[in-house]
Design brief:
mainly alpha
Length: 100
């Protein structure tokens, strides 16, 4: 039986890896993947606490997070593809479309 602490440590490590990817990488696709990694780390925490406390509301919240993550991925990837078609790059440093 794995304890709650082990789940929280894995979740914290996944979240830290995702946050480092968002802060230090410049490719938009990798940034999206890191955001997904952070959302899954939060999902793991919610499931761990839900199992530990014997309450199923955390599992229901995970479905909402997964739904939002799927919508974010669909819209985000569509935007990245549109930007790639115009700029031929997905580097976020080269994107200055919204500058006035």
């Amino acid at each position: 039986m794995t304890s709650l602490t082990n789940y929280l440590l894995v979740s914290a490590a996944l979240f830290a890896i995702g946050a480092a990817g968002v802060f230090f990488r410049r490719n938009a696709i990798i940034i999206f993947m890191c955001v997904e990694l952070m959302l899954n780390a939060v999902n793991l925490t919610l499931i761990a606490f839900s199992q530990f406390l014997g309450d199923h509301s955390g599992q229901v919240l995970v479905f909402f997070v997964m739904t939002v993550a799927a919508a974010e991925a669909a819209v985000g990837l569509a935007i990245v593809i549109a930007i790639y078609r115009n700029k031929a790059s997905t580097e976020v440093d080269t994107l200055n479309l919204l500058k006035g």
